[in-house]
């Protein structure tokens, strides 16, 4: 028992089961890789354990109570080294676990010392990476050996070729080279890549991929290979300069979308960069802007331009933001133009809605009204306008064509200005490129689409047509704008329907025939003898069932002595017949005079003398002759008062004053 009591506590520790923390400590201390690290060396923390448990910290606090300042004495700063071995009482301050860690370190076999022990961990990692690259070398054809030799050749000034100059020399040399050594593995990321940045395996893999690409195979596009091929194309290597380059860049962008989920080809910026480089190529070499501006993009740009014009017009009419009548556009923007622009810039297309297709005029009125309400709301309550909040503000910024590609920039481009869409243009002046854009996002807006969907839902509910839509998550004030505009337009539509007059011209022949029969029945014998046109009256009843052309031929002419007939043709007998080309729309002098008086708000009772047609007959004749021009009745009764329809007063004046 005495011997057992006198044994070293270390033995007890060795016989009991080690904790998880002790296993971790042993694994760290026995790692040869960490021993070579600058963070764990005999020069700095060789005797200090790199992992400590809570029991160790508690033991240190018990052995070294805090001073008045609150820190233990063992953490007192000194002017000497920070190593615990430099302190004369470091052994007394070290815990038992620290002593065991030091003994384990001293008893472990020391690795073979190399000069790398004195280097940092970063340098060691660099050496290892370099060694991996050397081990990864493959056989190089003589053609590629010559390409690599250009990286060591000097230029005319005695310096090595580098940058764009080196890339162009290598690209011209390898413009027709083909290979059959595909690359498998992962690529390192390079934003501006050249042949010099690729390893030999990657280089042979690129030419193998390019060979398949040029043959027309629909293969995936690794990001690093796509950038390298784009650099060749914009420099006129491997393809005829001109529209073919733009076509190849577009093909690259489309093919890249198919493989953008692949781990080695995923590069979110490549698709956007390819579109940008295609645009730069078109502008730089003076090609047709339609090559890079699709119909959808042009429609979006034109729609946003119209909306910005309508926004400025609305604010100017309201006198907000310092705008006034002088800021109004020359041509006001119509509701239909605003509606078409909203459909072109929102994610919710109005052409897909069956209700919008059935009621295009109502949809345009409601959509334009809601748009103007939102513009005024933002102008009054927000610091940023409605359209700026949706699509971003206008911007003009300096630009460098083909950014991210090796491209010669030692020549100054001539002054040029190209408008790509209604809201985007590029220009070069004195060698400086600038881009002007009417928005920061040229994508259809989802928030605007939700607003149009809310309009569709509200109008379906108010009109009671089409299947109802689910509610849209929008602020209450926006839903209020939609409901108010929808109900107001519904009221206007009902009022217009109430005032509309439909004339069935197919029934006029039958009416004329019936009128002739009635007139014949009302004539006395003396009037029949005086009227030469009564000889054809006997055929009138049969003409009602005849076609319109035959009925018009069979209809008898009105009697010049009849002042109470209801036939429209009787109006020509009551007034002087118009000479050909004298009066517009075939109006008689009496009808023309009556129409002028009604337009001026005067009465026509004095014109209806004995022998003149009835007022109702005169009104029907005028409305019939003007219907082809107006598409509606020109005169109406407001109670007992005859008047010209207010909406058509100016149109009628234009007609009769021709």
Walkthrough of the structure:
- Residues 1-14, 41-46, 67-94, 110-119, 261-267 and 533-577 have low confidence and may be disordered.
- Helix 15 packs across helix 16, helix 15 (295-318) crosses helix 18 (360-381) and helix 16 (335-345) crosses helix 18 (360-381).
- This protein has helices at residues 2-5, 9-15, 20-29, 32-35, 54-63, 90-93, 96-107, 121-135, 142-149, 163-173, 200-214, 223-234, 243-258, 268-284, 295-318, 335-345, 354-358, 360-381, 386-391, 446-463, 476-499, 508-522, 525-530, 540-543, 548-554, 571-574, 589-599, 615-630, 649-656, and strands at 395-399, 416-421, 424-429, 432-437, 635-638, 641-644.
- It is mostly helical.
- The protein has a 4-stranded antiparallel β-sheet with strand order 1-4-3-2. The chain has a two-stranded antiparallel ribbon with strand order 5-6.
- Strand 2 (416-421) and strand 3 form a beta hairpin.
* Unreliably modeled segments: 1-14, 41-46, 67-94, 110-119, 261-267, 533-577
* Helix content estimate: 40-55%
- Based on secondary structure, the structural category is mainly alpha
Contiguous helical run count? 29
Identify the overall geometry: elongated
Q: How far is the first residue's CA from the last residue's CA? A: 135 Å
